[in-house]
Design brief:
37% strand; 5-stranded antiparallel sheet; globular; OB fold (Dihydrolipoamide Acetyltransferase, E2P); single chain; 21 strands; 341 residues
Length: 341
C-alpha cells in the first residue's frame, strides 16, 4: 500500500487545458473515486499518476517519492503500480494463467512462485478453474476479472482502475462492483477508481472527488457528497437534482412565474439564486404550485413523474398516483439546496 499526492497538477493538449491545478491526497489503503462527465479530466489525471502522460506543471508523489515534477519523471514500469483499463487489454493468444503471470515474468519471479501467485490471484477473482482457458472462451465480466487479477498479482503499491465496468451490462456491473469491494476489503490495496457512474463511486469509495472542467469541485465522503453538495454542478451530477434558476424573495423561490415555499431551515438573502432539488425531495400533492404532468414512468419501487415548469422539465419520484399525462399535480419542497445565481 502507498499514499499518492498531487500538487497543483496541470495538463494541456494543444490549446485545451484538460487538468487545471488539481491537488489531491490519497492515504495509504484508501479507495478514492474520481467522478465526473466525459472530458472533465479524470482519466487524464489517472494516466498522469500511472506515468502514461507527462504533466505540464505541478508534482506527483507516491509514498513520498516524487515520480513527476521539477526533479524529473519516473517511467511507468518503475512506479510499481497496477492498472485496469476499460477495454480489458487481455492478450488473446495467451491463456488466462499466462495473462495473469505476465507481470511476474517481467519481474523475473521464480517459476514455482509464479504458479503459486497466479493460483492465488485466480482465487481472488473467483476464476480458479479457468486458468487454462483462452480469452475467447470467457464472458466480458470474466475478462475484466482476469485484468484485475493481472493488475494485482505483482503486489502493486497502488491499483488504478479506469472505468473498468463501463463495458459490462447492468447485471455484470453490479456483480463485479461487489467483487471489487470484497477484494479491497480483503487486500487493503490503495485504489484510485475513475468512473462517470455515480452509483459506482458512492458504493465503493471512501471518498469521492467530483470533477468538472479540469478541477475538483468537491471531495468528501459519499454520504456528504450526496447530502451536502457544495456546488450546483455536484448537486446535479450526483443524485440528478433538478436545477432551477430564479430568485429568492421573502422566503420563497420564484422561477418560471411560479413560487415555491422554501423548506424549513433553508434560508438565503433575497436575490438571484439556483435551486437544486432531488426528484425524491419534491412532494407530490404538497403545498405549492400546480404543474402539468408530461409523463409518468413506473420504476418498480416508485414512479417517476415529469412535469413542465416553463422551459424546464422537472423530475419527481414518489408513490404511484392515479393521474394521467395532461393532468396537473401540485408540488412542494421537502428539501433543497440553494446556490448563488
Amino acid at each position: 500500500m502507498a499514499s499518492v499526492q498531487l500538487e497543483a497538477v496541470h495538463k494541456t493538449y494543444g490549446s485545451t487545458h484538460v487538468v487545471r491545478g488539481i491537488s489531491l491526497e490519497v492515504a495509504s489503503g484508501e479507495f478514492i473515486a474520481l467522478l465526473g462527465p466525459s472530458g472533465c479530466g479524470k482519466t487524464t489525471t489517472l494516466r498522469m499518476i500511472a506515468g502514461l502522460e507527462a504533466l505540464d506543471a505541478g508534482t506527483i508523489r507516491i509514498d513520498g517519492q516524487e515520480v513527476d515534477g521539477a526533479s524529473g519523471r519516473v517511467p511507468p514500469e518503475r512506479r510499481k503500480l497496477g492498472m485496469v483499463f476499460q477495454s480489458y487489454a487481455v492478450w488473446p493468444h495467451k491463456s488466462v494463467a499466462q495473462n495473469i503471470a505476465y507481470p511476474l515474468l517481467l519481474q523475473r519471479v521464480a517459476g514455482s512462485e509464479i504458479a503459486r501467485r497466479v493460483k492465488e490471484a485466480l482465487d481472488w477473482v473467483r476464476l480458479g478453474p479457468f486458468g487454462d482457458r483462452m480469452p475467447s472462451q470467457l464472458s466480458g465480466g470474466q475478462l475484466q476479472r482476469v485484468a484485475i487479477a493481472r493488475a494485482l498479482v505483482g503486489n502493486p503499491r497502488v491499483l488504478l482502475l479506469d472505468e473498468p465496468l463501463s463495458n459490462l451490462d447492468a447485471a455484470l456491473r453490479e456483480e463485479l462492483r461487489g467483487e471489487i469491494a470484497a477484494l479491497r476489503a480483503r487486500l487493503g490495496t490503495t485504489m484510485i477508481f475513475v468512473t462517470h457512474d455515480q452509483h459506482e463511486a458512492l458504493a465503493l469509495a471512501d471518498r469521492v472527488a467530483v470533477m468538472n472542467q479540469g478541477v475538483i469541485e468537491q471531495i468528501d465522503a459519499p454520504q456528504r457528497i450526496y447530502q451536502s453538495p457544495q456546488t450546483a454542478f455536484v448537486a446535479g451530477f450526483v443524485g440528478g437534482a433538478n436545477r432551477l434558476e430564479g430568485r429568492v424573495a421573502q422566503g420563497r423561490f420564484v422561477c418560471g412565474g411560479v413560487e415555491f415555499t422554501l423548506p424549513p431551515g433553508l434560508t438565503a438573502a433575497d436575490g438571484p439564486a439556483i435551486l437544486a432539488v432531488r426528484p425524491e425531495a419534491l412532494e407530490l400533492g404538497g403545498v405549492g404550485p400546480s404543474l402539468p404532468l408530461l409523463a409518468r414512468l413506473f420504476l418498480g419501487s416508485a414512479t417517476e413523474y415529469r412535469l413542465q415548469l416553463g422551459d424546464t422539465v422537472l423530475r419527481a419520484v414518489g408513490p404511484t398516483l392515479d393521474v394521467k399525462p395532461g393532468a396537473s399535480i401540485s408540488l412542494g419542497l421537502k428539501a433543497a439546496h440553494l446556490y448563488p445565481g
